[in-house]
Specification:
This protein is an alpha+beta fold. Strands 2-3-4-5-9 form a 5-stranded mixed beta sheet, with no helix packed on it. Strands 15-16-17-18-30 form a 5-stranded antiparallel beta sheet. Helix 1 runs parallel beside helix 4.
């Protein structure tokens, strides 16, 4: 094929920008037209899905726990259920996590026990039909109170549990090797840092979020918010960034070296945030809420508007969400006993692309980035079909926030204090939602 030579001189191409604008407009319209994020709904649970887990060494393998005490292991690539443990626990399962070497699965429950399951045995069963069993756990760790959360330390044979207090366990011992409790506050969530294995973040029912160092057996910092945080997540690429999903419908990201001010505040949810998880790149994270939506956020830009929102008519309250380790899919578990799989980018194609198609997609993305600030392209790119109940609740929420701003302005002008009304709402919330910090 002969090479086609083009003259890039702007004098010879006076309409180049106008042509590129029309191409960008066409590209953003096609992107929204092909935006179909939902892939499939996996059925196998008999009760609400309470927690999800991912296998670090097998991208297609996932596990889920239910409120009826059962555990399901899924093959996401085949969209099939591999194995079911019917009576893994006597009560609801509050947390499930895979060991770093992928040889076992740890689950915790309200029955006050943590059980270790042999994942190699469970996953080696034939996948032509679902295997349902009451398999015995490899090990069982019994506590004196119900467990509300669990996470495994990176590069260690240890795991942390949340309950009446924070406890550190060793897989080879039947009793905790370390425990910590701050002012008799019950712990409701715990997350281990994937980069710094000695740092553990936990939240309590008394609205506090703290970072704990297992080397010194002492906390580093603590922040108290206006409402409690039910879920936490560490940024895998930035070990100092911690995200907290709060009951005030907001998500706060903190630099753990300075808890006096939130780094960013994300405010699109209209109900309590139940879970969140970072993408492998650390640039984005996904959250789920009682408002029956799954939202994707840009971590680097603190804004009230999420990048995308996923919802279906049949999906009920979401309890758990995970971002796949290949950065391609999102898995969510909801109250309707279904595990749903979504695309991380709604307009991506699941089939292999021809090199010409990939070059065309890359060209469209560059056009969108270049002309995305223009009003018409920005309007089309940000348009989403939102359910009526969410649109109504969002309007009421921001009306309440506007009234709070007016109240703060009047208080500031009539008391002679510093006028904070000139600050943007998201900047004001970075400090106003923090009650106090303890170092």
């Amino acid at each position: 094929m002969d090479r086609i030579h083009r003259n890039v001189d702007s004098n010879q191409n006076p309409m180049a920008k106008q042509v590129e604008y029309q191409r960008a407009l066409k590209a953003v319209k096609l992107e929204r037209m092909f935006a179909k994020p939902f892939i499939c709904a996996l059925q196998g649970h008999l009760d609400s899905v309470s927690c999800l887990g991912l296998d670090r060494n097998a991208l297609s393998r996932s596990m889920s726990g239910s409120f009826d005490g059962s555990i399901c292991i899924w093959d996401l690539s085949r969209r099939k259920l591999i194995h079911t443990i019917d009576s893994a626990h006597r009560h609801a399962i509050n947390g499930i996590v895979c060991t770093p070497d992928s040889s076992g699965i740890l689950s915790c429950s309200n029955d006050g026990s943590v059980r270790l399951w042999d994942q190699d045995f469970l996953s080696s069963q034939p996948t032509s039909e679902v295997i349902s069993s009451n398999a015995a756990a490899v090990s069982e760790y019994t506590g004196s109170f119900p467990f509300t959360g669990i996470d495994h330390l990176a590069a260690h044979s240890k795991f942390a549990t949340a309950g009446n207090k924070l406890e550190i366990w060793d897989l080879t011992r039947s009793h905790p090797i370390q425990s910590y409790q701050w002012d008799s506050d019950p712990v409701i969530s715990v997350k281990c840092n994937p980069v710094e294995p000695n740092l553990i973040a936990f939240s309590t029912r008394e609205r506090s979020v703290a970072v704990y160092d297992i080397r010194t057996n002492s906390p580093l910092q603590k922040v108290v918010l206006q409402m409690k945080s039910g879920c936490l997540a560490w940024n895998p690429m930035n070990p100092t960034t911690l995200a907290c999903g709060n009951d005030d419908w907001n998500i706060y990201t903190f630099d753990v070296r300075n808890f006096r001010k939130a780094r960013n505040v994300f405010t699109s949810h209209i109900s309590s945030v139940t879970d969140l998880h970072f993408s492998p790149t650390g640039k984005e994270f996904v959250s789920c809420s009682f408002d029956r939506t799954v939202r994707i956020w840009n971590e680097l830009v603190g804004t009230h508007k999420s990048r995308d929102m996923y919802h279906t008519k049949r999906m009920h309250k979401c309890w758990s969400v995970r971002w796949s380790l290949d950065n391609e899919f999102i898995v969510s578990g909801s109250e309707d006993a279904c595990v749903r799989v979504w695309k991380s980018d709604a307009s991506d194609s699941l089939r292999p692309l021809h090199p010409n198609e990939q070059r065309q997609i890359d060209y469209h993305k560059s056009l969108k980035k270049r002309y995305g600030h223009l009003p018409e392209i920005k309007r089309i790119d940000q348009h989403r079909m939102v359910p009526k109940y969410i649109r109504t609740a969002t309007r009421i929420k921001y009306h309440v926030l506007a009234n709070e701003r007016k109240r703060d302005y009047r208080v500031a002008t009539n008391t002679g204090s510093k006028d904070t009304s000139q600050l943007p709402a998201k900047t004001n919330m970075k400090e106003s939602r923090i009650v106090h910090t303890v170092e």
